[in-house]
Amino acid sequence: MLVVSDLRVAYGRIEVVHGISFEAKVGEVTCLIGPNGAGKSTTLWALAGILRPTGGRLQFDGRDIAGLPTHEIVQSGLSLVPENRLVFPNLSVLENLHMGAYQRLHADKAGVAADVERMLAYFPRLRERANQEAGTMSGGEQQMLAVARALMARPQMLMLDEPSLGLAPMVVAEIFEIIGTLNEDGVSILLVEQNVQWALTFAHRVVVLDLGTVAFDGDPEEFARSDVVHEAYLGRKSLEERP
Amino acid sequence: MQILIDVVQNFLDGIMVGSSYALLGLGFSLTFGVMRRVNLAYGSTILIGVFAGSTLLRLMPGQPILALLITIGMTVVAGIYVERLCFRAIPQEAALASMVSSFAIWMQLDEFVIQSPWSQTYAYPFPSPFDLGSLEFGPFAARIDYLLMWFSALAVMLALWWIVYGTGFGRSMRAVSNNIDGARMLGLNVNKINFRAFLLASVIGGLAGYLIAVSQEQVTPHLGLWATIKGLITMIIGGMGSIPGAIVGGLLLGIAEIQAGWFLGAEYRELVAYLLLFAFLIFRPGGLFGRTGGDGIGTDAQRV
Fold this sequence. Notes:
A: six-stranded mixed beta sheet; B: ABC transporter involved in vitamin B12 uptake, BtuC; 4 strands
């Protein structure tokens, strides 16, 4: 569904992604993991149309998306839940959700209303806070709102950038359960996570990035067996020592 | 007792004057709130509008509605010119570059008005369509044209409030103002929203210019500088980017000026405006309703 070929991304003259290639297949959960500075968020931003790649091809559902503006990429069915949530703090939960379906707001009022209902059913805590300003909610609730908002665009593939960042373990468990349910319901997932253990419980495929290149690309069992990967990932030998 | 009457009368006059300041502050705050930029050419675009209105009234006297439309229309045209040149053409990260270029355009527009072949004298008459005297109640008096100005300004403020908090467009503006990257990610066309916010600010500016010109019955090219200063002071004391702040700040500025002018002398009126600004900058730099910043991708060092 998503094919990344030789992607290069640079900030000014500093190239941070040096020609990576991987595939995220339809219906699967693909995990992009790697240490800080590996280029994971940069890759997601290039896919989401926030950054313009300096080289390579990005294809989603057969369509070239490299360099397209974000709203067109969202329209093609690819949505991003960014790191740090980026909900609109001064808008209410409901307003945030409506903004998620921005492109359909006038054309499909009934559909949008139905989707809002669906989101509130998926995330009961949001229903309790429907008219509350998003900025006043806890980190976990904001994360749920960010996911719900991205889902309002009815994406075929959802990209999540470190959804567990800054959240308490119980909340992380809830978030990942939701991600799992979404995948079962047919949404393909591209997940960037530093929390490797959680990521591996769902992943169908693991891609490891290290300093802008692909250090590993395979399924979770191979990953668990591989030593080279542990070294690339902060040089640690044991998976148990993960924070 | 007389002092009390004076204070209340000044309060009333101050609110009238302050309502035009509030409108100017609203224009600046709207642009700053949505685009995170200060449009330094705002006052001059209003000057262009009022100048056009004055020219119209010279060519076709006795057409107040048409003069209003022309004033607003030409302010909008000048506003589009500024937006395209200073804000759209310059990339997001170069905040300072766009504000400096708006400063340059401010100078350009002012010069254009002074040097233009249509300007005959240094002051452009702007005859008032109303000559209604004043309303007197007890020891107080209120000029009726000032009252009309106040009610129009009030109507504009209420309309703006409704637009920002009650419509989809307003919601989009608030989303962009909160978090421009988040808004882009959801497919909002930020350029279009910025442009429309700019247009809205220009319409408000044109209306403010018309009301001010009518109450003064003439305009000089100083209006550009004057409107910019009053608007910026209002925006700063009200809280940059805040709509209620611009309203309260403008009224506060107007009241302070009139009280000072009455009790201390006309020359102190301007001084008090700057003293008020200074006091706020020292004791409450965020302004009365200082807005909180939103999150964004990357550090806030990228934003102004």
